[in-house]
Design goal:
Blueprint lengths: L4 H14 L9 H9 L3 E4 L2 E4 L1 H9 L18
Antiparallel strand pairs: 1-2
Helix pairs in contact: 1-2
C-alpha cells in the first residue's frame, strides 16, 4: 500500500498519541485519507490508528530525523 510522506507522518503521530505521547497536530485531510485506507478511524475521542495502520508503520521505511545544526555568524552584533 502506498501512502504519502505526509500521511506516514500523520500515521506515526497517531501511533505516538495512542502510546500516550504528546504529538503535533494531525492534518485533517491526511487523517481522512488514512481512514479511507483503513489505517485510522474517527471517533468521538478523535483520530485513532487501527491495527492495519500499526502494521503499515512497521512496513514503512525508517524515519530519518535531521539532527544537524547550522552555525550562522551574527553580523553587526
Amino acid at each position: 500500500m502506498d501512502i504519502s510522506e505526509r500521511q506516514l507522518v500523520a500515521l506515526r503521530n497517531l501511533a505516538r498519541k495512542q502510546a500516550g505521547e504528546e504529538v503535533d497536530w494531525i492534518n485533517i485531510s491526511d487523517a481522512r485519507a488514512l481512514v479511507e485506507l483503513g489505517l485510522a478511524e474517527r471517533s468521538r475521542e478523535g483520530w485513532k490508528i487501527t491495527t492495519a495502520g500499526e502494521a503499515a508503520i512497521k512496513d514503512a521505511p525508517v524515519e530519518v530525523v535531521d539532527t544537524s545544526t547550522e552555525v550562522v555568524p551574527m553580523i553587526g552584533r
